[in-house]
Structure formats: structure tokens, C-alpha cells
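pinging the channel bc i need a second pair of eyes. not urgent but kinda urgent?? the chain im working w is below, pasted from the shared doc
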Amino acid sequence: MDESKMISSVKQQYEALPYPPRNPEDEKSRLLRTVGDSLSELNHCCFKGQRNFNQNFRCLVAGGGTGDSVINLAEQLRETSAEIVYLDMSSASRRIAEQRAAVRGLNNITWLTESLLSIPELGIGQFDYINCSGVLHHLSDPQEGARALASVLKDDGAIYLMLYAEYGRHSIYLLQTLFREMIPQHLSIPEKVILARRIIGALPIDHAFIKDLDKWANEITASGYGDSGLYDLLLHSVDRCYNVNEVYALAATAELKLVTFLGPNKRFYDPAQLVADQSIRLLWREKNIQEQQSLAEKLFSNHIKHQFYLSRQAACTASMDDEDNAIILEHELANQNMAIHDAIKPEETLSITFTINNEKTVFQIMGNKVNKACFRYMDGKTPISSIIRKVKMKCGASEQKIRLELRSIFEDLYPWAASIFNGHKSYVRPCISVCTLSLKSLRTNCCIITKAKSTSL
């Protein structure tokens, strides 16, 4: 299939079956949080914690679909001078996104019906942040798409990408191949969907896709994304996947650097999170970060997507070494620093339980007077230098001990995500010796470094 036919086929799909399916009326009762689009996390990872989003911040959502990211960004930037540009080649998808924005009364979005590949010729200016989720892997030339995005990125800007991952989608590509061989291409989209469902219903119980069905149920069932999800997952005309090394190679073609991976399985890009055997850990001791991440994805073998930030800057992440910065708990832990402070009891274990992909992981803090006092000032306002001074006055501990305690708290909490998705509620419940946080879906970092809002000592 030549490029023009590929583009036509993809456009035809999304005109017939906008993805993901959304009801604009749902905007009256919930805001969907999208990975990569939390301004606080973006600030931490890509702007050293020091970006002021209130002044002339420009976002491009390239391949905006039915509007999840553009709505999330526009809502966060509602009271600012920021501009959000939505771009998608599907008129049907754009109509749904516009209706969602209208329900919310958002007027900070510029709407464009164009192909991502047309970006360099559109004259739309430069952007501080570009979101491109689930688009490049549907292009015949993803590298051209990455370069198109980079062509409108400011020198200090950042890009969020989501690309399909190779190893966790094995059963998907097996079924896609089966469908290409069994389903006549001349059939209409509804006819293909009907036949695909019949084939799925006839699969042996030990087929790889049936074994993985729980993983994909939301995509294909009527209670989830229905026909739109099934077609996007299993019948898409252009679909490729990436491993870690290919992600780095794609970034390099656009002269960009990978800042960090994101999402609920972020920690599984670190092989140390997957292997406890010290003798095996020695095998990657001398390897660089890319090589370690490549090993980790094979050890984990279940990534279904890669979600990550890109930047032109070699060092753009906020650091605890800059003591003018502050530490803040974000997302479902936001404003809970005092609840955790109150729950910590010296010489008792404080537990925070995270549920990720139906697996419970417990983060534990052995309470002491120093870490208890540290949480009091993790408010995003108090500079690290002031935290050290105040905790020293309160506890009499040395500055070195306080710095080590702060760094330990941050390094333990930072990799965890804490964002509501699809309306699931989460909470922190302090009690005598246990603080429990139970989350259905963990998507963004819950402990970050940001510019101190007050530098008074």
C-alpha cells in the first residue's frame, strides 16, 4: 500500500470510528487525566521545575483524536495566557473534542484539521510542549513524523510520545496477521468488525490472545471501547511497534534526547527493580542507561506501550542539588504531606500500599523524628535549604543527616505514580502506625521537585 492510500485508509477509519469513543456529556462529571500532560510532572522532568505556565505557554496536541489530552491541558491552563493547538486529520474526532471543550467552556484551544506530516508547512509557530500519543506508529514513515514534530519545538521545549511496545503486544500482532489472511480487504469497516468478532469467538482457549484477553477487554468489549477499540487494536491498516533501542533511534533521527520513561510500569525500565540476585546485577554494572533499559524491557517482557519525554536539552530535570528548589507531593498525594507527617510515629513502620495492574506493592517508611519533620515542609513552597534549616532547629539533627533523609524520601517516592484515571478514587488514610494509599491506576510521579514558591528563610 503506497503512502497516500495508507493515509486515506487511516483517515477513513477514524472518520467512521473515532478513537477513543467519548461522550461529551461526561465532561460534566469528570476530567480524564492523561499520561505526560500533568504540568507539574512536565515541569519537573523537562523544565528543571522552573517553568512558569502562566505566561505565553504554547502546547501542540498532534493527533488529538477525540480530545483527552487537549481537554486535560486546556483545563489546567484555563486561567492563563497559554494557547493549546489541536491537530488531527479526522473531522469526526475533532467534532467530539470540540463538543467536550464546549461543555467545559474552554476557549483556549485552536482547532486544525490537518495531517501531522503537514506541520512544517502550516506556519503555526513554535511550541513549548508537544503531545503526540499513539500517532507515529500509525505512519508509514514514523521518522518523518518525529522530524515534523521537532521542526516546531522550541529549543528548550519538550515532547511527550506514546509508541506501541514490542514484547507485551505479541498476541495482538499474531491476531492482526491472522485477520489479514482471513478477512477480505474489500469488506466495509462494519463487515470487518463483525467477522473479526466471529473469529475471536472461535479461537481455541489456549490461543495467545484468549490468554491475554483480560489485558485487552476494555479495548474490544461493548462496556469499553467497543467496535472503535477493536478496529484500532486488531484491524488497523498501519501498525508497528518499538523496543527500547528503536525508541532511542527514533529520537535521534529528530535530534532529540530521551529524558525519562513514564507510566504505570515506569520502574520496570530499571533492571534492578526486576532482579534481586546480586550476582546477576553485576552483569549490567558497566552498561549505560539505554542498555540497562533495553535489558529491563526483556526481563519484564510485558510493556504494551512506551511513554516518554523528549528534549533537546541534555540536563532538563529538576535536581535536589539545587537547594533553592522545593519538594512537593503531587496528584493523589497532593496536600497530604501533613497527613503523612501526622501518621509517622518514631520507631514504627508507616506503609503506603500501591496497586499497579492488580499487583500490590508496599512502600514503607521506618518512622523517625527527622523524616516526620521533613514531610511537614514538603509543600512545594519551602526551599530545600529552608527545610534543612527548620528540621535542624526542630530535631537537632546534622545537616548531612537531613539531606540524606530528604534524598531517601524523594528517591523512594519519585518513581511511583499517583494519578486518577477514568474516575477511580484514591485516598491517604492516616492512622496510628499505617498510612494506606490504594490506587487503581498509577500513571505519574507522586513526589517531584519544583521551583520554590517562597524563598524566604
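so The chain has a mean pLDDT of 88. and The chain has 17 helices and 14 strands. — does that match what u expected or am i reading it wrong
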